[in-house]
Amino acid sequence: MHDTTAIAAPQAPAPPSPLPPPQAGQGRVAAAGKNANPRYAELYRRYPTIDYLRRGARRRLPHFAFEYCDGGSGKDDAGIKRNWAGLDAVELVPRYGVMPSLPPCEVELFGRRYAAPIGIAPMGGPAIVWPGADEYLARAAQRARIPYTFGTVGCSTIERIAAIAPDVFWFQLYRAARNDHAIGFDLARRAQAAGCHALVLTLDVPVRTTRAREVVVGLGGAFNPDLKMLFQMLMAPAWTMALRQNGIPRFSNLRPYAGDNASINDMVAFARREMGGAFTWDEVAQYRERWKGTLIVKGIMHPQDAEKAVSLGVDGLFVSNHGGRQIEALPAPIDVLPAIVRQVGNRATVLYDSGIRSGTDVVRAYALGAAAAFAGKAFLWGLGALGGEGAGHVIDILIEETQAALGQLGALTPEQARSVVIRQPGALHF
Ligand SMILES: Cc1cc2nc3c(=O)[nH]c(=O)nc-3n(C[C@H](O)[C@H](O)[C@H](O)COP(=O)(O)O)c2cc1C
């Protein structure tokens, strides 16, 4: 399937913050990780890193579901591998003698405080990977207080996600241009009415490309489970149970436009018909005019595109290559991040996604100038390995590792990570 068409724990007191106190109504930032989740130690013993969760997901999910979340475009997932290699190649030089205890890692994004410079990237059809995924992700993000970006082709509704995650709800929009953007503008209106904190316009899916692993498992178009898929479901009892609990994944958000009785394949066809191409700069300007809150564009890979976005008055931008899911020739976003950060300066907030698999990766992106790093696949692997509690465990791992990486570098705050010496062999110079 295509991204545009794919089908609690008690809280410990927050650590001392280097930032000003929260604004009225924002509450206190919750501590995460082993301080907050009584099951953390047990989960950590089984799944100490994101990589272990990926292996767990491969074992536990129906094969088609794992292929949907894990695969990229082009030959042998080369783009995904480049994203990982680009991050792995970034070296950070530590300073010692300054770090008596783990530093806090709270951040402020667009005037709101979050527990860490970490977020959940928007994903279409995550409920294929784990039925009910959108709501599990939203709940975990709200509990940990990190941003959750609900996707246009998610399998819940704007209103429901806003109710589950009122403090951390962001919404991603794909281009739906027919009828003068009637559907797109209406989705934005609903998001604003529901209290969404940021609208994210995805720019980097101008064309459909082939994701071979999706195609060969039967997710390349309409959803018609064959015997093979049914057998895979039978072999994955926890997933099948989640399907019984949460129902067949549907693009519920699009119901008002596709019709209440639309079947899953009607929905797939509807999304394919209505959502195509990527926003033009003129269209970004139109959304800027209508959307009064924080506006972010996603998929920026060139400093001049960043400049254009800033000139149109966006508040933030995601440096991202869609997690290696478009074409494999794109550079690793981490390698274009420094040039984009230099271009943007303090005129907008630069966010990062693509390839994040550890807190160390988060700190690499932060050190190179991103205000926060978001992950996509890591969260789906977490759900695949652990079901509903997987999203929270991914957040816990990422926060623990982020703090550990900051501590190891001798950074007393995330900001101080920006002054470490960095070697980045792949950085692009424009
Ligand atoms: C299964 C899946 C579906 C996705 N669907 C969307 C989408 O609907 N809209 C969007 O802007 N990005 C989508 N993305 C891209 C993510 O938002 C993000 O850019 C990417 O996953 C980050 O890379 P990572 O997976 O290596 O962390 C999707 C990613 C995955 C893995």
Walk me through what this model shows:
- This protein is an alpha/beta fold.
- The protein is built from 19 helices and twelve strands.
- Strand 6, helix 8 and strand 7 (198-202) form a beta-alpha-beta unit.
- Helix 6 crosses helix 19.
- The radius of gyration is 20 Å and the shape is globular.
- The protein binds flavin mononucleotide.
Quick description:
This protein is of the alpha/beta class. It has helices at 40-46, 50-60, 63-70, 78-88, 126-129, 133-144, 158-164, 178-194, 212-216, 227-234, 237-246, 255-258, 264-274, 281-290, 303-311, 333-344, 359-367, 377-386, 390-409; strands at 91-93, 107-109, 112-114, 118-120, 148-150, 169-173, 198-202, 294-300, 316-319, 349-353, 372-375, 421-423. Helix 17 crosses helix 19 (390-409).
Number-wise, the strands total: 12
* Regions with little confidence, pLDDT below 50 for 5+ residues: 6-31
Count of helical stretches: 19
CATH architecture annotation name: Alpha-Beta Barrel
How many structural domains does the protein architecture include? Answer: 1
Q: End-to-end span in angstroms? A: 34 Å
Q: Looking at CATH, which topology would you report?
A: TIM Barrel
CATH superfamily: Aldolase class I
Beta-strand percentage?
5-15%
Radius of gyration: 20 Å
What structural class do the secondary elements suggest? alpha/beta
